Amino acid sequence: MTDGDPLEPRIYQLRAVLRGISPMIWRRLLVRAESTVADLHEVLQLSFGWEDLHLNRFEIRGREYGVYRDGGPLFDADARKVRLCDLKLRRLERFVYEYDFGDDWIHDLRIEAVLPVDARKSYPVCVAGKRAAPPEDCGGPHAFMANRWQYELIGSGEAREELEDLVDDLDDEEWNRSSGYHPERFDRVKLNRVLAKLASGSYEEALDEIHDPGSN
Questions:
Q1: Distance CA 181, CA 51 (A)
Q2: What is the largest CA-CA distance in the chain?
Q3: Does one domain contain both 20 and 95?
Q4: pLDDT tens across 33-56, in order?
Q5: Which alpha helices (DSSP H) does the chain contain, by range?
Q6: pLDDT at residue 2 above 60?
Q7: Residues 6 or more apart whose Cβ sits within 8 Å of residue 43
Q8: Rounded Cα distance, 135 and 203, in Å
Q9: Is the peptide bond before 124 cis (omega within 30 degrees of 0)?
Q10: Any idea what the CATH number is for the domain that residue 31 is in?
Q11: 103 close to 140: Cβ distance less than 8 angstroms
């Protein structure tokens, strides 16, 4: 942990791991300490390739943070109004981000370091990671683990006819979507290009680009 004036801008180095998946799916991210909790939600959505279609929440020191949506739960605090630095997070401190209360994607986050701002870097940025997050609405960790081998086969590039006896029957839309996905494929260069777009203030464009297979 760096020393110095606590009022100076700082960077949190976070490690985010998707719970219940083996081998692990994880990202190491650098985010500005003055970012809001809602900003971190956007970073995590892009970093794991989610589509931001479902409810989500953070649990930090026993309090829940989120953005209220019609029909959804109330939270202890509005994630748009709380900055990460306001929470005075410490090195090695852990907290949780949950996305999609049906599939229950739990992301375990840990503060690995508190760093000075590097003027040569753009933030947020992903400095390391492994593997693609599961497809949206695939049923949660247990369902994903049970079907992981099928995703690997479909994403291998083999012709559909060659795999018909090995994978469950999929309609054309499901096949087209699955064929562009492979559990081992993680493109950090593309992610950082998208995070740079987020830094410019265009979350919707960043979401569109992270899911565009032609934007490599």
A1: 14
A2: 63
A3: yes
A4: 999 999 999 999 999 999 999 999
A5: 37-47, 141-154, 160-163, 172-179, 188-199, 203-210
A6: no
A7: 29, 31, 35, 124, 195, 198
A8: 20
A9: yes
A10: 3.10.290.30
A11: yes
**Contact indicator for 132, 185 with CB cutoff of 8 Å:** yes
In sequence order, the 6+-apart residues with CB closer than 8 A to the CB of 109 are 14, 15, 16, 17, 94, 95, 96, 97
For residue 71, is it left (φ>0), alpha (ψ between -120 and 50) or beta? Answer: left
The whole domain housing 173 covers: 141-179
Q: What is the strand order of the sheet 105-116 is part of?
A: 77-78, 63-66, 56-60, 94-99, 105-116, 10-18, 26-32, 125-130
Instruction: Report if residue 93 sits inside a domain.
Output: yes
CA-CA distance, 56 to 67, in Å (whole number)? Answer: 8
Q: Are residues 93 and 198 in the same domain?
A: yes
Spatial CA neighbour of 47 closest among 17, 85, 72, 82: 17
Phi, psi of 37 (to 5 degrees): -60, -35
Neighbours of 23 (CB within 10 A): 10
Q: Does residue 73 share a domain with residue 42?
A: yes
In this structure, are 104 and 146 located in the same domain? no
Write down the mean pLDDT value for the chain.
88
